[in-house]
Amino acid sequence: MNEEILFAREDDREALNTPPDDTVDSQKYLIFMAGHLKLGVVAEEVVEILHNQVITYLPMVPDFIRGIINMRGQMIPILDIRSRMGLPQPEKDSLVVVLNLGEVQLGILVDAVDQMLDIPRDNIHPLPANSTQPLVSGMCSLPDGSGTMMVLDCEQLLTNA
Known about the structure:
By secondary structure, this protein is mainly beta. The chain has helices spanning about 10-15, 80-85, 155; strands at about 25-35, 35-40, 45-50, 65-70, 75-80, 95-100, 105-110, 110-120, 135-140, 150. Strands 8-1-2-10-9 form a five-stranded mixed sheet, with no helix packed on it. The model is unreliable at about 1-5 (pLDDT under 50).
């Protein structure tokens, strides 16, 4: 199996280990693409970013669960984030972002990894009251001016649709 750790930029690898700026209450986010959406997860939850993974199909699971991968002897369930959010399927292969969610590791299929940013907690706003997207817990304009990030609520990924 060909496993390759990918980062949007080489200095993103170091960003996971860089101490935060103590003057601003902020948190590092890994930002990735799913369709036209920029989604972010807390960088501390990211275990690995994998490319070219063989996903083994599992019967009798929800449609948004693509199957499992073998990551160094550990079976990791793979969730298709596009399917889970009701987005159309991509035409090309996807990356797998492996997350550590407490006692559970979960891989999510994403289109591309965009960047890793330190975002002040005050910049993240709740979704409008009429929002119907339970997988997103907040949103913010990115400090580099590259668009809006929606914060993926990783706990909700583990619940059934």
